[in-house]
Amino acid sequence: MRTRTRRLTALGISLLTAAALLPSSGAIAGAAEARDARPSGGGLSATVRYTQYGIPHILAKDYENLGFGTGWAQAADQVCTLAEGYMTLRGERSRHFGPEGKPDGSLSSATTNLSSDLYFGGVRDTRTVEKLLKQPAPAGPSATTKKLMHGFAAGYNAWLKQNRVTDPACEGAEWLRPITSLDVARQGFAVQVLGGQGRGIDGITAAKPPGAMAQDRAPDPDPERTAKAARKLFSADDAVMGSNAVAFSGKTTANGKGLLLGNPHYPWQGGRRFWQSQQTIPGELNVSGSSLLGTSVVNIGFNGDVAWSHTVATGVTLNLHQLTLDPADPTTYLVDGKREKMTKRTVEVPVKDGAPVTRTQWWTRYGPVTTGLGAQLPLPWSAKTAYALNDPNATNMRGSDTDLGFGKARSTDGILKALRDTQGLPWVNTVAADRKGHSLLSQSQVLPRITDDLAGRCSTDLGKVTYPASGVAVLDGSRGDCAIGSDKDAVQPGVFGPSKMPTLKDAPYAENSNDSAWLTNADQPITGYERIFGTVGTQRSMRTRGAVEDVAAMAKEGGLTVEDLQKQQFANRAPAGDLAADDAARACAALPGGTATGSDGKAVDVRKACDALKAWDHGMNTGSKGALLFDRFWRKLVAAVPSAQLWKVPFSAADPVRTPNTLNTDAPGFATALADAVAELSGAGIAPDAPLGENQFVVRGSERLPIHGGTESIGVWNKVEPVWDAKGGGYTEVAHGSSHIQAVGWDKGRCPKARTLLTYSQSSNPNSPHYSDQTRLYADERWVTSRFCEKDIMSDPKLKVVKVREHR
């Protein structure tokens, strides 16, 4: 590609036209000319080359035009999903869908349309995003990022103007309308605060001061209960987003070059889906990968020299300040004995078939007052105490600049430089490998600068429990000396600088599966970071244990290739099965009379289940018999039996990958979980030894596609979290799991060797030819051969070239 672009630059061609790029095919040329029969005579434009599975390769002369082509192509695949997101960000869900309806969770944790509208309406009314856009770089977004946003909005609008919407999700909807670059920026803001303010939206919008008669009705939170809720809230076990990624250094590979396998776990529906593309500005940028919908840059991907992926990190992107209130006024708080009045934000929300709803939010020097982080973590506002939420990512609009820096990097050192210079990633780790054989993991996040020393000096009674348990600091907001400090190398106040980020360079392997950075490499554990980043020396998840076992064995064997990465992705080994299935089968067979008593008190014949568990191959392949039985049994067992009672051999920090182990079949919940699982399958008409794919599937059009993979607690690398519907035949849809998968390496040529897969396909429009084509590939464990270099793009048998323009 570099040779090609240099030749074009020498010829003075700033943008390749569709005709110049086409192979000698009159049919393709005619199709391209027909689409561009009415040139606009001006405005933004780009060339979009579509290859198999609807993957666009967007070619433009500069960043604004690149944004235009990206916005156009995303709208073509996802216009309804994008449009609903923009309507959400304008605070108009209640106007169109009613206040009690529920958002899809893509842009916040709000549980009702009204709560969502109140929050995003407040962001709109206070011009929060506009103010952030005005901040000069590096604290604010660069001019390049702003050009991409402007172009993206123009491309989306041009597609909307020039095409008919065929997706039934929004065809003819009044909320489907043009956008501005501010809408694009607001979407970026919402993604940045997902782990902070986005977690507390219901609590922020519902917060109100206690009335005169309620002074003693709101008790202080119970520390132990709150700590337990916080631990669960910030645990990867129940998260709707996760991921695996591993980078292998040249020490382990067949040719001395690096390898990367990325396997992010994201929702299969809604606005937090990935979308594939290649973005090219000749001589400036050439990057391929995936973007979160609404994003004008590639978030996860590769170029000719380096590949990277992300995993959701354990760093807690928020903290709380416990306010001491003025006894005479619960909307005034004290700092060093001085009174400070809270700021009122009054937001009005239009409501479908009803009068507008007006609510007041309360803000402090630390951030908004919140009365909870989700329903299970209440933080009541009493006459004496309130809680304010600090989220440093609410002033961070640099994420796109970080991604752009990745796209232009030429090594893992370039990835680190982009992280250091922009400091824009809110809630992910970065795992990378490069052509020269380097590997990298860096937990470079925008986190509140909570040191263990600060937490020790300034935690309230509640914080003394929540911080060690979950990383959620609750600081004494009444003390000025408890203010969050700043690092000299940080680009914004109140956050950690790059020198504090847990990082591992050039290890034989660097792996993360959503646990802390500690066991990135089991032979080179990372320590010495503050608790807010994550834990050290604590029990790892089943998925981390299985992943480290797998990749450590791969690294030890050596001679690795891209094909080995592909095998790992679909190995579908169930680590929990290896640890527990045989013990469970033996204990099952020993049950008196071959029966167990269920939670309803009824005896259940489990003899066939015992045989199925014994015969199970410990895999979550579509043909694995007994896998569904173990899945349903294991879910019930871990929900009923505390972790400390589940295993006979407890966790040891000296042997963190192999412990805990040996299933405690004497635990009171064991037989009950087994009986309930058998009864559940029987009630659904499913045999204990039924192949997994018969009862774990998705339906796309008239096709029923069997789905492999397994749930978080079983520990499968290829994670899927399916939706159980006993009446529908088992697991009948996937809520979230493996999404944009990439296996990337290099050989002697300039073109990277990459295999990719977008599990849910490019388009959510059921009328699109790319609604389920890659989902069929995923069901069959087949991959897409990435076409990165020009010769590969132009030789694609499905090539379609489209010149897209503004029609002014």
TrEMBL record:
Origin species: Streptomyces rectiviolaceus
Pfam hit, one: Penicil_amidase
Segment forming the signal sequence: 1-29
Family the UniProt entry places it in: Belongs to the peptidase S45 family.
Coiled coil: none
InterPro entries: Ntn_hydrolases_N, Penicillin_amidase_A-knob, Penicillin_amidase_dom1, Penicillin_amidase_N_B-knob, S45
Name of the protein described by the UniProt record: Penicillin acylase family protein
Source species, domain of life: Bacteria
Keyword terms of this UniProt record: Hydrolase, Signal, Zymogen
